[in-house]
Amino acid sequence: MPEFLLSSFRSGSIEVVCGPMFSGKTEELIRRVRRAQIARQKVQIFKPKIDKRYHEKNVVTHSLQSINAEPVGSAIEILEKLFDTTRVVAIDEIQFFDELIVRVVSKLARRGCRVICAGLDQDYKGRPFGHMPELLAVADMVNKIQAVCTVCGAPASKTYRKDLKKTEQVLVGESEIYDARCRTHFDYFDEDENLLAYSIPKKEERDDTFVI
Ligand code: ADP
Ligand code: MG
């Protein structure tokens, strides 16, 4: 459905923009927010407190576009900070929020808000990130976008962590830590280290059930 129709329905809606780092999720979120502002709709923008990469308050893209946002420590805080007059709610880096985020987003949409969410669909190992699977399932509109592979220039759907010794799922960082990679170059270095590259690891050697 065209954006202008979605936003004019008072029934509310959930839009999700997902993809790897550097794919332009935040650029797209800012683009949609600016269009809503041109339409004179009241917009509130939220981001998780954990993301302080560029700025404490602003949402900033890798191409250094920026827009003012409210940092929140939990999903519930979004409801607490919401004004009655708000028509559009934009949430960046939504994969970092707690388990209540899907209920909060659904509640906003039920109240008649257009909710624009942007976030990583996969972590650095290619596993579904946080509550993104549920969010993608309940969304009305999903856009999965790609970056450019830093090795070969192909479309990239993966976020590659350069230092694989750092194994925590959440490690906030920039291009000093992460690269966008196509599927071939996402697996490549792991395979290089592993001489049995084309054998499937035994079940007990795998560290989770998501790696396929
Ligand atoms: P995201 O929020 O998805 O991490 P941003 O919206 O912050 O992405 O930034 C997208 C911008 O990043 C692009 O328009 C481009 O200028 C820049 N960029 C840097 N590295 C890459 C890459 N490997 N692929 C695509 N864009 C890149
Ligand atoms: Mg971003």
Description:
This protein is α/β, with parallel strands linked by helices. The strands form four sheets. It has a six-stranded parallel sheet with strand order 5-2-6-7-1-8, sandwiched between helices. The protein has six helices and twelve strands. It folds into two domains: 3-145, 3-Layer(aba) Sandwich (Rossmann fold), CATH 3.40.50; 155-199, Wheat Germ Agglutinin (Isolectin 2), domain 1 (2-Layer Sandwich), CATH 3.30.60. It starts with a helix and ends in a 19-residue tail after the last helix. The protein binds adenosine-5'-diphosphate and magnesium ion. Magnesium ion is lined by residues 25-26, 92.
- Overall shape: it is globular
How many structural domains does the protein architecture include? 2
Broad structural category: alpha/beta
Distance N to C terminus:
34 Å
CATH class of the largest domain: Alpha Beta
Provide the fold topology.
Blueprint lengths: L2 H6 L4 E7 L5 H14 L4 E6 L10 E2 L5 E2 L2 E3 L2 H6 L7 E4 L9 H10 L3 E7 L11 H7 L2 E4 L2 E2 L6 E2 L1 E4 L16 E4 L1 H11 L19
Parallel strand pairs: 1-7, 1-8, 2-5, 2-6, 6-7
Antiparallel strand pairs: 3-4, 9-10, 11-12
Bound molecules: adenosine-5'-diphosphate and magnesium ion (MG).
What distinguishing features does this structure have?
212 residues, alpha/beta, Rossmann fold, Wheat Germ Agglutinin (Isolectin 2), domain 1, two-stranded antiparallel ribbon, 6 helices, 12 strands, globular, binds adenosine-5'-diphosphate, binds magnesium ion
